[in-house]
Amino acid sequence: MAVTDTTETVALNTAARELLAHHVRKDLSKGWPYAAHVAIEAICKTYTSAPLESERALLGLLSPERLVHFPHNDLHDLAQNLNYLGNSGAEVIRRLFEASFADEPERGKWDSGGSAILPLRFQTSDQWKLIRFVLAEYYQSRSGEDAALMTEAACIAWNSVARRRMERRDGEEKQPLGTIIFRGVPCPLVEDYSHIWGRGFEQDENRILTHFEKLLRQWTDQGDTEQLNAALDRFARCNRTSVLWTVFLEAGAEYPNTLGTQLQDVLNEPSFLSHPDYSYGGTALLGALHTAGDVQQRKYLETLILNLPSRLAESKNGDETAMRSWAEHNQNRLLNKLDPRNVVLEEIRDLYSERQERNELTANEKPSGPSAAYVGISEEERLRLRGINARSPTSQELLRLRDELKRISDRQGQEFPVSEIESHWALLQECEHAVKRYKPDAPEMAKELWGYLVGVSENIANNAVWEKTSVRWKTVRRILLKAAKDPFPPSDDDRTEGKDEWPSWVSPSPRIDAARGLPALVYRLECADRSATTALRRLCVDTSHSVRFNLAERLWWLERANAALMWELIDILIEREQRFSVLDVLLFSLDRLWSRASDEVRRRLQQITDRVMQNAPADNHIYETLSGIHLFHYLRTANRDGEAFVSHLINECDSERASRALAAQLHACREGGWLTAEDHNNDAEAGAVRGRTWDFFLNVLTGAQEKLEHHRETWIRLRKNGQSDTDKSKIVNEKIERASLLVDGVAQQLYFASGAFEEKRTKDHKFAGAKLERFWLESKPLFVRLAPEVHPHVTYQIIQTLDHLLPCAPREIFLLAIKSIKCSTQAGFQYEALAVAEVVRLVQRVLADHREIFLSSRESECLNALLEVLDLFVDVGWPEARHLTHRLEEIYR
Prior knowledge:
- The chain has a two-stranded antiparallel sheet with strand order 1-2.
- Helix 27 packs parallel to helix 29 and helix 38 packs antiparallel against helix 39.
- A hairpin with a 4-residue loop joins strand 1 and strand 2.
- 66% of the residues lie in helices and 2% in strands.
- It is mostly helical and 893 residues long.
């Protein structure tokens, strides 16, 4: 409600100033952001009731001691409320612009924000840019009553741009091009390369500058001499950029009889007529003044043009010939702005005629800065850049074959067109012969066609189901065996820097296609002859990471045709492979072989497991793959080795490798339907698998909670001993975060697995009746353990899931939900806007569908619990909770 009474306004202003002063006295990390937000808004709205005191209070936010720590929340709140100041508070506005456009935080530093339920992380430098965005919005809303303030704010904004660019360029402030006296103030002319950079890359500053241009023309057009003089005086005092000079000079060119005449004297400085940062605006102003001026003024301006070469020679050292050429170039641009009919000096008239006759007059083009645009490149141009003549008969023939091959094989993700390949089989043979024939004369084009031919052959091996006696296989075999010796891709084993991640590669890559196609070819032919065996052994120890990666992924294809060869190659990789990313995909091949060679798989899986656990980096993806194979083999078969490995990860679930791996398996179990597997035809096996999956979830939750409790106690002790900022404390915090993520992950997967999300999104009841009751019974132990968790996000997910499960056991589920809410209030759950909506929804549903749990004397526990929770949310001030208390009488209707 707006405050109108003067006494109340003064009282509110006083209270807000005291609250803000208390916030400012605190360390920045211990301030009261919300209290400051309220206080700043109140002070700005009541500013005129005590302007001096309000100004002093707000400037307290901008003290140098605070600005060193980049208090973005305070500055953002102040920027959001500047509109309430009206035409008051000029000093506050000026100082806020200075602070916001001064040095910004370094990139890479992060702050936490959002809420406990929906936490967000912001880069501090981005927060600072958000302040500038708000200030640009505010600046654009001003109508220009205070020209001095508006001019200084524009100068502050663009001075910061020039400073940042200079720091990025060489970090040293360069000597000015010169210094002029303008409006009685020394004004250095800075070389800031604005003619190269332009304005487009600085969005917020450019919005400010664009609005200033509008205001400057408005003051000039309206003949507001007072505002225009104030703008010029402040500009002379504050500007340190060529861009602002250009803005004034352009406006002067549009209004030569008013603003232009006040800027005329600056043209006596040669930089305004010759330097790329200044010459566009200077030339435009000179031309406009010459057109609008009298004889004396024109004579003065023409003399400036005539004397420009000698003036430049005096001010610069360098090659005399180059300097004369540069001076003539600038003269030509200036001469082109003159109307020959207005020329006064005979020397200028002669010079104009001479240069015009030689066609040397140049336009005064406005620098546009860098720009980016998509420019298509033709096939002919692409080949020309590679040194290939696309119009030669050889190139034309190879291009024709390549394009036909692409047309029949490239289907943009659709099923590979084996039938069309069959009908165009002669094309493959023609391409093969063309590569051999034209390779000496057109090696690059032949190489490209060969790459596409190998790619098609690899796809044929993976997709065609011809009889093994088909003669087509001979062609495919010949191409793939030859590709296995191709020099591309080059060796990359010497490039070991960076993470050991899954590789990427360009296409076509013949040797990679051979590694992918040969195992499939052996599978189709049901045998591996000597040539194929030799090629596969060579590819297994290839010097290209990508080749070995692709081969390892496909080795399982060999099992039916030549199991001995497959195990030989797998053993070579296990023994020799140095990249865990290759072993990672090798695990996928092993996982496909459980049903046919479980003992062989188990032995090799253990070898990889031992090596990974001893040597793999903690952030390597192989831990997720390894844990998934062990876990799902255990879930399917109750294998004890798999159970032991998973238990080992749970025991160290606060480590980086275990936390990542287990979190991935929680998602995989839910996504794969393992928590809700159906008992088809009374299949006891499905129930056993489901039971083991629930046990896994419970074990992960129990282990994570135990770690969490231990590390929280450790952190509390460290804090009590004044060690909260030590390295040991940081390690403990990291472990707390990892364990917390697993607890939260369990709650999240229960929410999605229960069908609560689908019901809320599509009103689709994924589970109902017996299925929902079974889910409740099997998940109940987890909810019992989750209910005491204090983190608001965990509670938020629990409440939504329990609301969905409510029909299964209304009393028990309601009490669990209340327990979860009450425990989470320790962490401020009752202050969350998202929380109140879910709590109200739960209570409304209970009152509507299950009011019987409140009626009997036995159920007084439920009623007391309900009242306690409503009191928590009413005390905080949520109107939804207060409204709900008025409906409690519905229980007894």
